[in-house]
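Ticket #4471: structure export looks truncated?
Reporter: QA, pipeline team
Priority: medium

Steps to reproduce: submit the single chain below to the structure queue and open the exported record.
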Amino acid sequence: MIAHRLFHTVLLCSLAAAGQGVAKDLGTHGPVFEVAEPSLLDTIKARLKDMEAAGELDEMRQEMQDTTSAYVNRPRPVQGLGKAEDYAIWEVDMSITLTEDLADHQGQIFAHAGTVVNPMAYSRFNKRIVLLDGDDPDQVSFALSDGDELDTLLVLVNGDPLGLMREHGRRFYFDQDAVLVKRFGVQNVPAVVQRADPFMQVEEIALGKGGEIAQ
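Actual output as written to the record:
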């Protein structure tokens, strides 16, 4: 029994000594380096220098300029439109229903949520809007045949607005993101939108040769 206890005591002392040895400072072995991540900005600068040296940067700049110029000269066409083959006419109610109260600068409410408001009652806009395909000579001739910049807006759904402006000396706009086409429900061009209180009137007009209105 005494021998057993003595063995047990020696074993515990050995384990304790071993634990202290594990925690002992063993010193420094070999050089120590700080962990450092490369600067993202420095990485980008280095990459740009490599691209410039290889001529890739000039190519990228030119590609961006060409892409921007192409979009300005010929914006993305409005999709899903046809060429008018029959005459059609309809009216569009521009009224909106307020979703919240409207107040003036002093906080006085002048229109409550749920009120139906027709902007036509407050707008003096009185120009014709002609929506057309600028790549169709007949539609261009039709659009230019009546009115001027004071009373008519020429709005392309396809084509080169700057080229047409230089050719005809008239300002041509473009229906970006099909805002007008969607608002007035246009499905075919040319289409003429004009005021017809208390609505806006839309006409799709079939054309013959030379831009003459088909009979």
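Status: closed, not a bug. The export was complete when the record was re-opened. Leaving a note from the reviewer for reference: Residues 29 and 128 are 86 Å apart (CA to CA).
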